[in-house]
Each structure stands twice: as C-alpha cells, then as structure tokens.
Amino acid sequence: xxxxxxxxxxxxxxxxxSLAGALISFSLPTIAQTMPAAQSQGTVIYxxxxxxxxxxxxxxxxxxxxxxxxxxxPIANDAERSAITFTDLNLDVHLRxxxxxxxxxxxxxxxxxxKAPLRHIPLxxxxxxxxxxxxxNGKDVPFQVATLxxxxxxxxxxxxxxxxxxxxxxxxxxxxxxxxxxxTIRQNAQRLLAIGTPADVANHSDWDTISLDFTGLRGFGxxxxxPASSVPVMLGDGAKLFDEMGAQKLRSSGARxxxxxxxxxxxxxxxxxxxxxxxxxxxxxQGGVGEFPGIATAQMPETTLGFEAPSLFVAVREAKMATxxxxxxxAADEPAVPSWTDAVNAVTPFLQGWLGDNPRSELTxxxxxxxxxxxxxxxxxxxxxxxPLPAEQLDGVMAHALTHxxxxxxxxxxxxxxxxxxxTLWLEKTAGRTRxxxxxxxxxxxxxxxxxxxPGVGPGQPxxxxxxxxxYRTKATYVFWMLRDLTGDAALSAALRSYNPAADQxxxxxxxxxxxxxxxxxxxxxxxxxxxxxFFNDWIDADKGLPDISIAKVFSEPAQGxxxxxxxxxxxxxxxxAEVPVTVxxxxxxxxxRLLVPARGxxxxxxxxxxxxxxxxxxxxxxxxxxASVHVMKIxxxxxxxxxxxxxxx
Length: 650
Hints:
650 residues, alpha+beta, 8-stranded mixed β-sheet, 25% helix, Immunoglobulin-like, Neutral Protease, domain 2, single chain, 5-stranded antiparallel β-sheet, 3 domains
C-alpha cells in the first residue's frame, strides 16, 4: 500500500492500492476549507509502501524534504518548550487499523509566548512515532530528533524534533510548520510498570492503542499522537505530571482545530463510530467487501479548543439510544444497557430542574474493550466499560456525565465544578445532606495541602486559570456549594440555565483567563440579595488560600420573655474572606444566621434564641478551611443564683 504526498502541495490526498492483487484506488478530495489550495502537481517528496507481511518502508523522491537527524542530547531547553503555544492545528490523519499504524500530515501555527526571542522550535510526539519531514513557513528545514524521558506519553518517552531558526522568533510572533510523521501505536504501560504499578492495573489504566475494532488515543498525558511542546515530567514526582497536563490544556484553550480522518480497514471490521475531541463525526464508508479492504472517512470542521487534550476514538460498536444519550456498545455488553438507560432516565428530571429542559449536546458513552479498563471523559464523551453496576452507583455516574452534556463549558472550573456539584447534589437528594457533606470533607484535606499558606508564599491557582484537578474539581465544587448558600437555589439555577458557553469562550478567548466571564455576570444578575465582588475576588479571580475560622468567644445573658441573647465572636486567621453559617442550639430548637468573616479579621454577632443555649456551631462543612470545616463550642448553663432558689431566705 502506498501513500503519496506531492511536494509543496497544500491540499492533501492519499492514494491507496489494495494488497490483494486487484487495484482499488481512492482519490480523496482536497480539504479546501481546511488546507490551502495546491500550488503544484505531482512531485513526490516521499512514499510509504506496505508489503503483504505488513512491513513498511519509506523512500525519498527527487527533491525530498530534509531528513531529521537523531542526536544524543536534546537541543531545546525547558524555557523554549514552555514558550511555545499552538494556536492552530490542522491535521490529516490516516489510520491503518490492521497494522496499528498512524500517518499524519499536521500543519501547525505556533506562537512565542515567552519573554525572549526563540532560537529553537521544539515539537514532541510519542516515542512510538517518527518525524519524517518538517517545513517552516513553506520551506524545507533540517531538524534534529532526540529521545526525552517524559511520562506525558504512555511509553514514558518522547521523540522531540527541534528546528533551529535562522532568525529568532520574537515574543508574540508566529510561525507555520508543515510536518509529516508516522508510526505504530500499541497498548503500552511502561511508564506505570517502571514505578512498580501491578501489571494488571497498569495495563487497564494505559489502554491507548490502535487496533482492528477499537482505537483510543487520549492525547497529551496518555498517548501523544499530535505535536506538542512540554517540559519533561515523570510520574511519582508529586503532581507535576498532572499540572503539566493541565498547563497544556490551558495554553491550547482558544486554539483553532480541524481534522480530516481516513481509516483503512480489512473486510468485516468497518468502523461504526468515530469521535474527535469527544464529538461524534459522520463516517463515510466505502469498500470492505469480499477479500478487499475498505476505507472510511470523516471530517471535523474548524472548531475552537476548550480546556481539553485533542483525542481520537474509532470503534466497531452498536448504537443504543437513551434520553439525550447514545451508548456505543459491544455485543457482549448489551445485557447491561437497560440498567444504564434506567440511570439516565432517573437523573434526567433532576438535571432538568437545575440546568434546563435540554442539554447543549448529547452524551456519548463508548464501551471500552475490557471490563476493567479505567474510564475516561472529555466533554460530553464518557469512555467506560458498559457493565452491570448497582443502581446507586450508576445514578451518580450519570448525574456527573450528563451534566457535561448540559454545560459543555470551555472553562475547566465550570465544566468539572458543575459536574461534581451536581453529583454531590444528587447524593444529597438520595442519601441526605450529611452524606453529601461527608463526600466534600473527604476531599478537603488534599485541597488544604495544595493551597498556599498565604498569598505571599505562593500564587496558588486562581480558578479562572487553574491547571490542577484539585482546584478545578474539588475547590470549584466547594465554590458552587457556597454560591448556592449565598444566592439561593433559584438564582444559581437561573445562572446555570442561562449560561452560554460560546459567549463565555468569546469573552475569555483563552488569552485572558482573569477576565470575569459569562457565568459570573449571570450570577451577579440573578442575585439581588448582596454584592458578590468579594467572593469572586477571593475565590475565583485570585487564589488567597483557604479561610481558617475559629470560635473566639461565646457569651450569653437572659433577655425578656424567656429569650437568651447569645454573642458569638468568630476569628479568621486565613487570607480568604468567607461567609459561614452560625447555628445556636438549645435542647429543643436552633437558629442559624450567616456571618461574613473578613480575611485576617474578627466579627461578632448577637443572636436571640428561645430558652437556654447549649452549643454554638460555626460552618457546616460547605466552606473549605485549612484545618477543619465544622467548629463546635459547648455552652455551660449559668450557675443558679441562690437568691432565686425556692426556700432560700431573702
């Protein structure tokens, strides 16, 4: 089988010949709207052929692009890697599933977001892929390829191609690169095995592969199948790997992305579903009859990346429909489908009450090959084994997953925060408030450990630009619980219903994450009770750590009509302002009021209650704190006055 890429050609096509003696030729149309028009006809810069044994060879034609040279040490440094931002990715992807092969032409636009001119442009791929040619601004350029140890790919290594620039790229300037690369992607758990992970666990965690009936490529952090530029990081070195994954997603947010996909498959293995970046794309299938292979094509028109790593899934599955949901399942797992559709039906009315009648997109659930494979989600795609699970567990999964279909936000703290918030609200609805707050408390210690002790110690991660899951998931979930108490269910629901992801993306545009977005404005508009600037300032726009509340003093004195006046003084040793509920209780009743406790400040409130108070509680677990999120002080009843005791002489 041969693939021809014409020299200086800007349109892209693949010509394929069959392996079985008869010739089938597919000439795919130029992608006029995604790649510039062709400038010349027919000069071959390279050809790739596959023999009957599946062995692939590449040869250069006349005037071929300059080959890359392997070097022992990398040319680029971390400052240069961190300065590169991809603003445009235009991919022409060719899969040969029988050979587990991937061949890609990628036209990239990169911008220097560093403070100094760039001497080198580093481009990275999985170590299972090989760079074949690179053109810079329309001209062939030499490049050096080094192998880096980095766990952002499942092999534990990267192939980094470095282009040395004749003229340094100034800060803010852009360059266009036209690249070709190829290789095989097989399931590989080397990075996990290297740190002692049991083989079974490792293999079901790193399941990315190209195969006959299932291709799953999760992108940066799992299988790096498209060009990137990153600082090498290793598993086991704290949270650095996950922070680098988040940093890559944040830097790519707002980038233009388009892709053309061609899939070669043998007879009987025609793909039925393809998903690019979590979105289903229509497949056109030709051939695949008799002894001859077939070809399937799909195309994703220009989109804008949100907080996501580009991903690619292709599979042979059967579609099963549910409310606002499509389940793509293997035949062996069909008996489990009714329980999944029951879960969808159970949680849908609850989500409609909070988020609106209809989701912005459908949820896609893709059945993973092995029942032990670790689930993966991106946007409104949930890739997971479809297997029997308890109804309680499935309902919780669906409450979270379907929320992504409703929200579809380009901002991580909104997408993940609302999904986790809905999950805890569903837990509150089905198991009670105490159980929901216990689920929050289980996550709080990790958040407290990640937060800086003070704003001067470290910048932390403002939610608007958070890259770590502990912030854009855990802290964001707390933020929504606090907003619920500050604004009320109706106002928060109104803001969530009115939220427009497209408007939010156009306002933030991935370039100024500190700019207050669409959702915050909607909350302000829906809330008529109080000004929330202090909340946005301390909890979203900046990271001031967590509050540290304590009950400094409680006093009580009798009032008229059997009432007692209770004075409560709260102290906040933290750097974030917080509004917490304060509850005064007697043996028969209680009363709750909310106190706004300034950062590094103290506040006192006097509360009237019927009867003799027995305890005061500050915070109920909805506001995360450094040490604990519930504070209780017992109140000793005042000693009786002997003068008032019966039988005592006056």
